[in-house]
Each structure stands twice: as structure tokens, then as C-alpha cells.
Design goal:
This protein has 205 residues and is an alpha+beta fold. The protein is built from 5 helices and 8 strands; from the N terminus they run H-H-E-E-E-E-E-H-H-H-E-E-E. It has one domain: 3-methyladenine DNA Glycosylase, Chain A (Roll). The longest helix is centred in the middle third of the chain and has 9 residues. It binds a DNA duplex (13 and 13 nucleotides) through strand 3, strand 4 and helix 5.
DNA sequence: CTTCAGATGCTCT
DNA sequence: GAGCATCTGAAGA
């Protein structure tokens, strides 16, 4: 069986969830096939206390409505008019908070992932191009076919979910706790003191 | 390797 | 109308 992360995993402190997501597998069912990426980079956003969060101070607007949904809900928004960002809602219901997935490493159905990004096969990509295929929030959404059409869906459904292992695909659980680094978040210069919160986590080699 | 400009449309004031 | 949780290709070092 696949050990899929359930609501209880996401119904915890957001920074803890963000720290524990690297190394797990993001699974997107695309045209009936699983596109899989190993999560490599995350960031925590917490409405209660974080000026970088769209729902800072419990700000409730049409866009932030999804952040108030139950833990395990998918929050996707459009950024810079052309890219999407994937977030996973955390903490208790009514606490607007989420983890931004900033990067994954492609591990299964590589040809489809390459096709979605560059309209070519995986084998046609240079090592440098492979390394950067899904290493940004906008890139991975493009590669995994995620848009606002998926905003509000649940990770407990069958379109998109996160697993600790996928034995049927030969992907075992990895304990990467010793390889996770923490640092400041990216691209939030407007967020004053929150700029320095060490709420970004990434996998090292 | 690095910097830099430009793309593009939604969201909230 | 201003700004945005980004990415790309071009140009330079």
C-alpha cells in the first residue's frame, strides 16, 4: 500500500509540516497516470503572525478563502500573471496557514513531466536542463499540470496527494531529517520582520 | 557562472 | 492603479 499523508499529518504546526515534507513524494494523477516528484524545497506561511502570508491577520478575501479550509486542502494561486504556486493547507480549521511547495525532483513518468515543461522527451534533456526542470514553484506546477482548476481540492482525493513511500513504483521511504536545511524565505521583501523567519526548508545532498 | 529586463493578468486598495 | 510567495532568454564576465 501507499502510505499517503492524511489530514492528521497536515493538522499540525505549519513549520513542522514544512520541515517534514522534503523527501516525501508528490503524486499527481495526470490522464490516469501518476506523475511523481520527490519534494526538495518548502516554505511555511502562517496567517496568524506572518506578514508574508496572504491571510496575514486572518485577512479573509475571495482568494484567501481556501487557506481557511481544512488541513489537507490544496491552495493554488496565480502569480505574476502567468505562473501558479502550489500550497498545502495546514494547522487547525479556521487557522489560515499552508506550506508552499517550492521544488521537487522528478522521479516517475519523466517523459510526461518533460513534455509538460519543454515539449520533449526526458532523454532529450541535458543534465543541466534536467536539474532545473521542477526546481521552482511555477516550474513544478507547469510540469505537473497544476492550475487554479485544482484550487480547493483535497489531498485525500485521487487527483493529487503526498506519500512517504510508493513501493509499487520502487520508491521506498527515506529518512532525510539529517539532510534538511533551514533558511530565510524567497521573494517576500515586503514582509518586514517576517523576511528573516527561517521558514524555508530544503534537501541537501 | 552572473545580472537584468520583460512578460502578463489577477487581486485588493 | 500598484504590486505580486516567478521564469526565461540574452548578454556579459
Amino acid at each position: 500500500m501507499t502510505d499517503r499523508l492524511d489530514r492528521a499529518f497536515f493538522d499540525r504546526d505549519t513549520v513542522t509540516v514544512a520541515r517534514e515534507l522534503p523527501g516525501r513524494y508528490l503524486v499527481r494523477i495526470w490522464d490516469g497516470r501518476p506523475l511523481v516528484g520527490q519534494i526538495t524545497e518548502t516554505e511555511a506561511y502562517i496567517g496568524r503572525c506572518d506578514k508574508a502570508c496572504h491571510a496575514y491577520g486572518y485577512r479573509r478575501t475571495p482568494r484567501t478563502e481556501t487557506l481557511f479550509a481544512p488541513p489537507g486542502t490544496v491552495y493554488i494561486y496565480l502569480i505574476y500573471g502567468m505562473y501558479h504556486c502550489l500550497n498545502l493547507v495546514t494547522e487547525g480549521e479556521g487557522e489560515p496557514a499552508a506550506v508552499l511547495i517550492r521544488g521537487v525532483r522528478p522521479v516517475y513518468n519523466l517523459d510526461i513531466i518533460a513534455e509538460n515543461r519543454h515539449h520533449c522527451k526526458w532523454d532529450a534533456l541535458t543534465p543541466a536542463r534536467r536539474a532545473h526542470l521542477t526546481d521552482g514553484p511555477g516550474k513544478l506546477c507547469r510540469a505537473f499540470g497544476l492550475t487554479r482548476a485544482q484550487n480547493g481540492i483535497s489531498l485525500l482525493g485521487d487527483e493529487l496527494f503526498v506519500c512517504s513511500s510508493l513501493p509499487r513504483l520502487g520508491l521506498e521511504r527515506e529518512d532525510v531529517t539529517g539532510r534538511v536545511q533551514a533558511g530565510e524565505r524567497i521573494g517576500i521583501d515586503y514582509a518586514q520582520e517576517a523576511v528573516h523567519f527561517p521558514w524555508r526548508f530544503w534537501l541537501t545532498f
